[in-house]
Amino acid sequence: MKLLAVGDIHLGRLPTRIPKDFALAHSELGPAAAWRSTVDLAIREQSSAVLLAGDVVESERDFFEGFRELKAGVAKLTEAGIDVVAVAGNHDVEVLPRLANTLGKDSGFTLLGEGGVWQSHRIDDGASQVRIWGWSFPQRTVRTSPLSDAQFDRNAGIELGLLHCDLGQTKSAYAPVTRAELAQCGLDGWLLGHIHAPHALTTENPVGYLGCLSGMDPGEPGAHGPWLIELGEGRIREIRQVPIAPLRWEGLRIDLNALEDSGDLEQVLIAKAKHLDDALSAHGAAPKAIGLRVKFVGRPAHECALADCKTGVHFPIGNRHYFVEHIEAELLPEVSLEELAKREDPLGLLASRLLLLDRPASDLDRRALIESASKHFTEQLQNRAWRELESNADRCSEEAVIEQLRTAGTSALLKLFAQQYGAH
Ligand SMILES: [Mn+2]
């Protein structure tokens, strides 16, 4: 049996920061377009159900657009024999129950847990059985955990939780839950909505955020799309994200040290975007448009006309359209670090610390700097606010510490330099 799990869609919202004269219309790149592709994918994959983890509709104001899009999609899915099961999040606490009522009981659309009461829905395709447990926001803010008095009586078959909540934020006004609480429920997986960055869900640990269906601004970079879940022999056999969002945001770091001649930076940028395009194609990602946040770094060996590169520039690569959403430059001053390090001021001190990082691993001063930074990072990561972050384990590796020191140190050095000598 296959299921398609979908995180926050926010129907009614449009992506921002797309150039005015861009080749594709906003409406082709927004949540509604992502939802239509999701419906087609569910039909193509012959999935038994589509699960929606809340914030399906952006707000009450978007009832009509949300309703039209959701209704059209649900009609197409139910015609193909596919159930739609949803929970309401903090954005669609009123809209989603209204939609459910208007669509009616026989529409194939099931809203679970209305009024903040846990409910379950059973899906049985003859070969496999799965039960989906869901809870919906009863009002816009909920300061207690929806799991605090929940009871889940297990049956044979797979049991999955569908919930809109704030994971690991105990003071949150949006249904705070902890990983420990989710684990105690004894279900086989938790498909979560609310935070727009997806977790890396796996068959071993199918618990976490699905991420928003499509990234709507540069703060939501990388792959977005629904998750295809394959069930069989009483377990989750596969869970993978299908990156079908029509718009994707990516950061592009361009090192000017590697530049061979002064050439046209726009051409350098396009060449770099071409690399990205090849990588995306290799990973089967199929966005129609890519918004680039470009950062030029390094110490240019040649005169570079950064001003030639403009925000809003757009160009096609193959059948995808790229645009530059933002450009920033973090160029090292012409004067060398060695020269700066001779000074007896904060700028000199910072330059000599940066030079330490380039010394051999056996250097004692270098060791001391890295160990002291590492101790500081470890203490920070113990902090409650960061503890639930998935990637913390890698942040204290020696390479990660050096990278952070280099980035933060260079950035501070540039600011100090600019303060003293004006922008360069
Ligand atoms: Mn939300």
Characterization of this structure:
There is one protein chain. The protein has 424 residues and is α/β, with parallel strands linked by helices. Helices cover 32% and strands 23% of the residues. The chain folds into 3 domains: 2-244, Purple Acid Phosphatase, chain A, domain 2; 246-331, no CATH class; 337-424, no CATH class. It has helices at residues 26-29, 31-44, 63-79, 95-103, 179-184, 265-282, 337-340, 346-356, 364-382, 384-387, 392-395, 398-421; strands at residues 2-6, 49-52, 83-86, 109-111, 119-124, 129-135, 158-164, 166-167, 176-177, 189-193, 207-209, 227-232, 235-241, 247-255, 289-298, 314-317, 320-331. A 6-stranded mixed sheet has the order 4-3-2-1-12-13. It has a 5-stranded mixed sheet with strand order 5-6-7-10-11, with no helix packed on it. Strand 3, helix 4 (95-103) and strand 4 form a beta-alpha-beta unit. Helix 2 packs parallel to helix 3 (63-79) and helix 8 runs antiparallel to helix 12 (398-421). The termini are far apart. The mean pLDDT is 90. The structure holds manganese (II) ion (MN).
